[in-house]
Design a protein that fits this description.
By secondary structure, the chain is of the alpha/beta class. The chain is 42% helix and 17% strand. The longest helix is centred in the last third of the chain and has 15 residues. It is globular, with a radius of gyration of 14 Å.
Length: 141
C-alpha cells in the first residue's frame, strides 16, 4: 500500500492530481506547511513524499502569505537525516514538484544537497504526472 505525504501550500490547485491518486487507492495526507510535514513524518509511516520547494514554514507564515525559498530543500535534508527519520532513500521516495526547478537549481542546489528520486515542474502537465504515477506505482506496489 502506498502512503503518500503531499506537502503543498496551494492544495486547491491539486484537484485533478488528487483524483488520480485516490483512483489508485493510495492513502494520501495533504499538509500545507513544513512544520505540519515534519509532525506527520515523526508520527506516521510514509513511503512516498511529494513536496513543493517554496513553502511556508508554519501556520503563522501561511496565514500571512509568507514563504521560505529554502523551506523545501531544508525539509528534504531533514527527511534524509538518518538521525531524525529512520529511513533510507530506498524506504521513502521523494518527488519534488516546483515552479523553480530550472536546470541550474536542479544541478547546483538540489542534486548536491538531497537528490530526490523524481522532479516535476509546475504547472503540472497531466501526461507527465500520469507517467510518473505509473512508475511510482510499479516501484511501490
Amino acid at each position: 500500500m502506498v502512503n503518500l505525504l503531499w506537502v503543498e501550500e496551494e492544495q486547491d490547485s491539486l484537484r485533478y492530481e488528487r483524483k488520480i491518486v485516490e483512483a489508485l487507492e493510495w492513502n494520501i495526507t495533504l499538509v500545507s506547511t513544513i512544520d505540519d510535514a515534519k509532525n506527520k513524518l515523526l508520527t506516521e509511516n510514509y513511503n512516498l513524499i511529494i513536496s513543493d520547494l517554496i513553502m511556508p514554514i508554519n501556520k503563522f507564515e501561511k496565514d500571512r502569505g509568507f514563504v521560505d525559498v529554502n523551506a523545501g530543500i531544508n525539509l528534504l535534508k531533514w527527511i534524509r537525516n538518518p538521525e531524525i527519520i529512520k529511513k533510507t532513500p530506498a524506504d521513502v521516495l521523494i518527488v519534488v514538484i516546483s515552479a523553480v526547478i530550472s536546470s541550474e537549481t536542479k544541478v547546483n542546489i538540489i542534486d548536491k544537497l538531497v537528490p530526490p528520486e523524481y522532479y516535476l515542474n509546475k504547472p503540472i502537465v497531466e501526461k507527465n504526472f500520469q507517467d510518473l504515477l505509473v512508475i511510482l506505482n510499479k516501484i511501490l506496489n
